[in-house]
Amino acid sequence: MELLAVQLQQEAHCTISDLAAQFGVSARTIARDLSLMRDQGMLIDADRGRGGGVRLDSNWGVGRMNLSYSEAVDLLISIAVAERMNSPMFLANLGSVRRQLVASFSPEKRNRVNRLNSRILIGVTASTYVQASVASPPARVVQTLHRAFVDQERLDITYRREDGQTSRRSIDPHYLLLKYPVWYVVAFDHLRQEPRTFRCDRLLAATGTDTPFRLRPKAEFGASLVGDDLLV
């Protein structure tokens, strides 16, 4: 029924016969699904008469978006970054959106979000030299880093240094640091047995290990956390 709801939202006018043909089912099945959708509270309009169409009210779905924990966290981070950039455009409602998102969490998840937010830091804007060399890391690397950061799991990476040399590292991603527009991961490096900072766009590969780690005291990371204004 989700696909049917999406189709009804996208199309201004659909007939039951058209929908039946599109989804490869009978018109009776479509009619039954529409009835079930109405029972679930969806606002479905129908035109009377032969050839009449059905449509989902354009306002349906506002306030009904279901986000997973990780998706909600991503949205909160994006809102916080936008607020921190202090742009006067399009920020009027971000504070309200953020408060509603946080309020929708259970107390336990709210605490998790607060702890996670304390590990996402804002530093000074990157120099023009650094900005000139920044690139987008592979999507798969970003996703793996994101999961390891949120779940506090050790990460195996292949990293390219500024001189072009590559190395394999095993890191615990403690903090993410934004020096706009460049993201860094501040981690405990098991190869060097000390904290190190890695530019996210120089991560060539990343593999999760499913090995959890405990957060080390913030004081251990010292100069790596320069400019550590909290996002939220």
Structure description:
The chain contains eight helices and nine strands. By secondary structure, it is of the alpha+beta class. The protein has three domains: 2-56, Orthogonal Bundle (Arc Repressor Mutant, subunit A); 69-117, no CATH class; 122-230, Roll (SH3 type barrels), CATH 2.30.30. A hairpin with a 2-residue loop joins strand 5 (166-179) and strand 6 (182-189). Helix 2 (16-23) packs across helix 3 (27-39) and helix 4 packs antiparallel against helix 5. The chain is elongated and about 70 Å long. The chain starts with a helix and ends with a strand.
Order of helices and strands: HHHEEHHHEHHEEEEEE
Low-confidence stretches: 227-232
What is the rounded Rg?
A: 24 Å
SSE class: alpha+beta
Number of distinct beta strands: 9
Biggest β-sheet strands, sense, barrel: 7 strands, mixed
Estimate percent helicity.
25-40%
Number of helices: 8
Q: Provide mean pLDDT, rounded.
A: 80
How does the overall form come out from the CA principal axes?
A: elongated
Task: Kindly give the count of domains.
Answer: 3
The CATH topology of the largest domain turns out to be SH3 type barrels
The CATH architecture of the largest domain comes to: Roll
Q: Which strand-content bin applies to the residues?
A: 15-25%
What is the CA-CA span between the terminal residues? Answer: 38 Å
What are the salient characteristics of this protein?
232 residues, alpha+beta, Arc Repressor Mutant, subunit A, SH3 type barrels, two-stranded antiparallel ribbon, 9 strands, transcription regulation, CBASS_pafABC_assoc_protein, DNA-binding transcription factor activity, transcription, WH_DNA-bd_sf
